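Recap from last week: sequence in, structure out.
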Amino acid sequence: MNYSPKVLQDQFLQANKSELSNLKSELESIFEKYTENQKKWKPSSKEWSIIEVTAHMAQTLRMYLDKMEPVKVKTKDRGLVQVTAFSPTWFGRLFVKFISPESSFKLKTFKIFKPEKMNVSGSPETLLFDYISRLINFINDIDGYDIKKLRFSSPASSFVRFTLGEAIEINVVHIQRHIAQIKRLTQSENFPGH
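Predicted structure tokens:
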């Protein structure tokens, strides 16, 4: 899926779009660097392999996009144009802080986001790249509209609600977190090829 290289009006959206492009390139170089056996290697039965981490990222991003796209349509249909720069809610800011790669807070993965719950055909790598492209297209399409007005329920819990802007940032930071996890995994003492 290709996306337009256009520069967006909204600086928040432009920064996240640029970061997604960088993350996609970083992931491509990671996936090219390792063999299938290395990608399937697990340090223990309780830890994920590179493939499982990738499947988790793809599963999570797909589920968020499926929730975000109907809100985008409502935002555009109602003509909710952006008046002020995006700023997250206190909860959105806290959530991003918890999932950031720098956070020492250990989060337990909800069952619906676990790799084994991924019931689609195709390689996790290809799916992840497709979903990242889909998010970039989403960002291009929502530029100029109010990304903080309407909220939607998190795919994991109907009690947790995010704005479109928060969901975009959450997914970018989530990918950053798991790229850091993959790097730690490949630097593990027992990683094949060390």
